[in-house]
Amino acid sequence: MTSTRFYSGLIGGILGFIFTFYAVYYGTTDEIVFGESFLMGSSMIAMGLSTIAIISACMIRLKPRFSSWTLVISGLLIPFFISTYGFVPLVFLLISGIPGIRQNN
């Protein structure tokens, strides 16, 4: 069970990075075409949240409750910062975080 949560958290964090880079690309293109960008600053926050998700996935065996809460919170915050690009990482991070919160340790 723990390895499933580890792998889904790791996949969610990596997908968060990939979609954040895509959002940075989209923000750069938007800035070139329209002269303004709203995604550049918030994409850096999403990149930090993806890093926190990867670290939490790696710590899932050491501190399962804390890591699970961190995965869920970072998964819920990523779509706020990179909009529709963050819903795929959200699904993977929720899949890895919710069972750890529900278990009785």
Automatic annotation (TrEMBL):
The chain crosses the membrane at residues 6-26, 38-62, 68-95. It comes from the Bacteria. Keywords: Membrane, Transmembrane, Transmembrane helix. This is DUF4064 domain-containing protein. It comes from Salipaludibacillus agaradhaerens. The lineage of its organism: Bacteria, Bacillati, Bacillota, Bacilli, Bacillales.
